[in-house]
Amino acid sequence: MTVLISNPPATVRHVCLGWVLTRSDDFTLRLTDHDRTLFVGGQTYLPGAALEASSFTRTTDLEPGHASVRGGLNAEAITEADLQAGLWDGARVDVYRIDWLSAAIIEQIWSGRLSRVEWQGERFEADLVSLKVDLDRLIGRQILRQCDAVLGDARCGVDLEDPEFEGLTCDQRLATCIERFSNVENFRGFPHLPGNDFILAGPAAETSS
User: How far apart are CA 127 and CA 180, in angstroms?
Assistant: First the structure.
C-alpha cells in the first residue's frame, strides 16, 4: 500500500521545508527553501534550496517509497564536481516541515537516500528512495559452494600478468581453482557445503517389528 504525503496547504504561510543531507563521510548539509537562515533545534538551516519536490510516498510493506526533486542550489557545498565524483551517491536525505515563525520542527515527513543525481547547468534533478532500500543490501558473505572472489583480485591472488594464466577464465569451481590455477589455498567458497537434499532429509524412518 502506498501513502502520499502532500505538501502543506498554501494558506499555512509560516511553514517551509528543511532538508538535511548526510553523505557517507558524515558531512552534513542543512538547507531550507525559506529566504533566510533558520536556527532550529540548535542547528543552522541555510537558505538557497530552491527545490521543487513531487509528493513523497511511503509504503506500508517492505517496498521502498520514492520521491523526486529538482531545482537549483546556491549552496556552494554541493558542486557539480562533487556530484560527478560520486560524493553524494547514496547520501541520506531527511525532510522536515518547519514552522519558521517559531523556529520549530513540526514533523519529519520523509527519510531516504539519493539514488540518482544529474546536474544540468545551474540546476539538478535527483531521485530519492526511502530507507527501506537498505533492506536489499548484502551484508557479509554469501555461503556458496563456488568461490566468490573475482579472478585476479586481492582475495583471489592469481597474477593475471603471469603469461601462464594469459587468456584463462574461471568458473569459480574448486576443481578449476586446483587444476587450472593451482590456487586452492585462496579458494573463497565452501565446496563441501551440504546440498538441499541433505538439508531437507529427515531422520531415517524407524520400523517396528
Answer: 46
Average pLDDT over residues 117-124: 67
Distance linking the first and last C-alpha atoms of the chain? 58
Burial status of residue 172 (CB atoms within 10 A of its CB: 0-12, 13-18, 19 or more): middle
Q: Domain ranges in the chain? A: 2-136, 138-194
**Counts for the chain of helices (H) and strands (E), in that order:** 3, 11
Class of domain 2-136: mainly beta
| CB atoms near residue 165 (< 10 Å) | 17
Cell numbers given for 112:
531516504
Residue 128 has pLDDT above 70, yes or no: yes
How many residues are listed for the chain in this entry?
Answer: 209
Which tens digits make up the pLDDT trace of 60-96?
444 444 555 555 555 566 777 777 777 888 888 888 9
What is the structure's pLDDT at 11? 45
Cα angle 123-125-129, degrees, rounded to a multiple of 5: 150
C-alpha 19/C-alpha 93 separation (Å) is 7
* Concatenated DSSP letters of 32-67: ESSSS-EEETTEEEBS-EEEEE--EEEESSSSPPEE
Q: For the chain, how long is the longest CA-to-CA vector?
A: 90
